[in-house]
Write a structure and sequence with these properties.
Length: 142
């Protein structure tokens, strides 16, 4: 007989990574990582889980570490979830009435910038895997 965990129990997630799309009237915060031998693409803030945090907690932490923006994990909208074989990949979105205060440089040296919706359409340096996720474009452009 299978025993079910009580509803109050924390879910048990396998390994996962997240990205966060934060849309504001002033633009969309993105980061550029500069790593040796890698093309410096523009990426949505995100990363891998830390400890036993939930995907939403991970997304809020990564947004703060990489951009300085504080986001309530409960306000995040799940846009997509993909099985990447070895881990799950979560895409979260949030729309805010104004751009939060941002850092110029993330905790790991990422360059932080804010890009207009229309400007993003013209850019050739956005991380290709992020461009493949249709839920992102639907969230940004409606």
């Amino acid at each position: 007989m299978q025993t079910l965990a009580p509803l109050s129990a924390k879910p048990n997630y396998r390994d996962f990574a997240v990205i966060v799309i934060l849309v504001t009237p002033q633009g969309i915060p993105m980061v550029r990582e500069r790593k040796p031998n890698r093309t410096p693409f523009l990426k949505y803030p995100g990363g891998k889980r830390d400890g036993d945090e939930t995907p939403e907690q991970c997304a809020a932490r990564e947004m703060e570490e990489e951009t300085g923006a504080l986001i309530d994990p409960e306000k995040l909208i799940l846009l997509a979830r993909q099985d990447r074989g070895t881990h799950d990949f979560f895409v979260f979105g949030a729309k805010l009435p104004e751009l939060p205060v941002l850092k110029h440089t993330g905790d790991e040296g990422e360059e932080v910038g804010v890009y207009s919706r229309e400007g993003l359409k013209m850019r050739k340096d956005v991380f290709p895997k992020h461009l493949e996720i249709g839920a992102i474009a639907r969230f940004i452009y409606g």
